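User: Quick sanity check before I run a bigger batch. Here is a single chain. Can you write out its predicted 3D structure?
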Amino acid sequence: MSTYKPPERTAKHERVLDAASRLLARNETADFSMRDLAEEAGVSFATPFNYFGSKIAIMHALSNRLIDTMTERFLSTEDMETASARVLTAFDIAVSVLLEEPAVTKPVIGSLGSPTTEPGGVADRSRALWANALGDFAGIRQEMTALAAARLPTYLAHGFRGSISFWVAGEIPDSDLRVRASCIAAALLLSFVEADQQDPLLQILRADRSQALPDRPPL
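Assistant: Done. Predicted structure follows.
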């Protein structure tokens, strides 16, 4: 059973974050000032600083809110029999959330690559999402369960972040993001699952037409 609890957010927190989302949607970049943000939110100039401290912290908060939405939607789905089915479903939900407002999500994700001394907890929240998706590790090889519990949520977080970073950079079009993300999940799961769970994952990888398969395995 999941222990996930939605974060407590005050109305003013949400007001500032909603205003930031509107500015991003209009500009499609993170190039707005804190004064613009305060005016859009209808609050004093000091309020965004008092609640978040900095603009990069606001972008982290928006990213965390995206992950919370992904988690809440995943937890509202019907339970699935295997960890791999759960993870693939979570990846699909996560991509759907990002594609709902790409003009907002792309600058939010892009901003996470900016140097900062204020880590926003995005990596931890992402790992928690994939840990929830793995559930009770049904279908994971018994000898790999401990390793999967310790490492696989981090690998999935890194893999998902990598695919969406290429999407933000324009190297993966919107139409291909779901496939790219599914292939990342399948490749990471493949070495952990029971033999009878491998075929669906291999089918996902074989269906990927972005790279031609070699005529024979490399020597």
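The CA atoms of residues 8 and 14 lie 10 Å apart.

User: Great, the batch can go ahead then.
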